[in-house]
Amino acid sequence: MTSEETSSDAAGGKGGRVRTSERAGAYAVPALSKAAEILELLASEPAGLSATDIAARLGRSMGEIYRLVVALERLDFLTKDALLDRYALSLKLFELAHRHPPTKRLIRAAIPILERLAVEAEQSCHLGVLHGDQLVILAQADSPQPMRYSVKIGATFPALETSSGIVILAHSDERVQEQFLSSLLPEARGPMAERFARALEVGHERHASAVVTGVTNLSRPVFDHAGTPLAAITIPHLRQVPVHTEIERALEMVIAAADALSAGLGWTGAAEPNPHTL
């Protein structure tokens, strides 16, 4: 304009969470293990939690948790909403992960695909990933047209205000969807759930931008070898007289580009439905 967590009721801890300290064995460092538990918990809570809620969810006392939460905030791993008294993950972990080979691999594989898409569709395009409740732009390519609309690398947007976020969430676990839906006003949850369902049914989204009037977002998720949605490729389509590529053709190109990137990551999913038949 992500990540899934597996828990086991047999593993102990509140909510079936497998504690990091329980996995670490004899070489566990208690404070570090508890800090990791906090980060792992908040990774699945895009709206954040209070210190009291964190302690309760982890089955630990406030005395064990509070100083660690304050330290993590001081080190910029957490942000605090002073009004709601809630803590959430900052972008620091994302910034660190950005240096990690899998993220570099994703960007490296995406760049030539995005550059080709921008030229062929005559539109700017970008690759976005979820980070908490935000959509973060990892890579982009500019339209060859002298007048264009593009999104800056590193820019963040509320995920539910972007088609990239919608298509990623539509193909994500229902628990993840519910967490995002619960952050909305009650009257907005039904329409958003329907939008998820539609994007899942057709495999992509064509939707008017919630941010820029006159722009239509064309989005398709990118999958890894296991079929998990890692990212999304989006064209923020800007209709111009000099552009010869129709929006329907541009949508086909987005689908093909996203699927090419997915295939490069090992995805072997079913072919995308023809957008003209939906």
From TrEMBL:
InterPro entries: GAF-like_dom_sf (IPR029016), HTH_MetabolicPath_Reg (IPR050707), Tscrpt_reg_IclR_C (IPR014757), Tscrpt_reg_IclR_N (IPR005471), WH-like_DNA-bd_sf (IPR036388), WH_DNA-bd_sf (IPR036390)
Entries under Gene3D superfamilies matching the protein: 3.30.450.40, Winged helix-like DNA-binding domain superfamily/Winged helix DNA-binding domain
Residue ranges constituting the IclR-ED domain according to the UniProt record: 92-267
Transmembrane segments annotated in the record for this chain: none
Any one biological process term the GO annotation gives: negative regulation of DNA-templated transcription
Pfam family, one: IclR_C
Keyword line: DNA-binding, Transcription, Transcription regulation
GO MF assignments: DNA binding; DNA-binding transcription factor activity
Domain HTH iclR-type: 29-91
Keyword field contains Cell cycle: no
Protein name: IclR family transcriptional regulator
Organism (species): Arsenicitalea aurantiaca
Classification lineage: Bacteria, Pseudomonadati, Pseudomonadota, Alphaproteobacteria, Hyphomicrobiales
